[in-house]
Amino acid sequence: MLAALWAQDKTGLIGKEQTLPWHLPNDLQYFKKMTIGKTIVMGRKTFEGMRSRPLPGRQTIILTRNKNFQASGVVVMHSLEEVLTFASQQSEIVMIVGGAAIYKDFLPYLDILYRTVIDGNFKGDAYFPEINWQEWQLVETLDGIVDEKNKYAHRFETYKRSK
């Protein structure tokens, strides 16, 4: 089973120069809660935006066309098909965590979407790909807490594929 996990602003913005355009500790905690103990899949640029360090407590797959790419502590795969085959053999959900091109490639194969919507407009250069929302059913919404550390209103949404 494949799921995508991402945070976006009201316009669908997800990134700025391979990093997040906002600081929202609640979303980082949510990301950790949703991915700990699971396999996460990301593109090379997203990985490099995280200073090329795998996240603890997760198996990390880097998807890249660069056949020479190597990094310590991660599994490197070179095709969508390779990741799909791997995911089909897993009992746990495999989480797709970015960037934009990776989300776009995997969108037809996703079963669940975990989206954090941040009530704001930020500047950046990467947007989540267009989704045919008629194929998805919202099954849960949870409002995030706004406080001195989490300055932006936000909500956590879960969708399951309906078609």
What do you see in this structure?
It comes from Enterococcus eurekensis. Key enzyme in folate metabolism. Catalyzes an essential reaction for de novo glycine and purine synthesis, and for DNA precursor synthesis. This protein is α/β, with parallel strands linked by helices and 163 residues long. The chain has one domain (2-161): Dihydrofolate Reductase, subunit A (3-Layer(aba) Sandwich). The chain is 20% helix and 31% strand. An eight-stranded mixed beta sheet has the order 5-4-3-6-1-7-10-9, with helices on both faces. Strands 2-8 form a two-stranded antiparallel ribbon. Strand 3, helix 2 (44-49) and strand 4 (59-63) form a beta-alpha-beta unit. The longest helix is centred in the N-terminal third of the chain and has 11 residues, at 25-35. The chain is globular and about 40 Å long. The two termini are 15 Å apart. The relative contact order is 0.27. The model has no long low-confidence stretch (mean pLDDT 96).
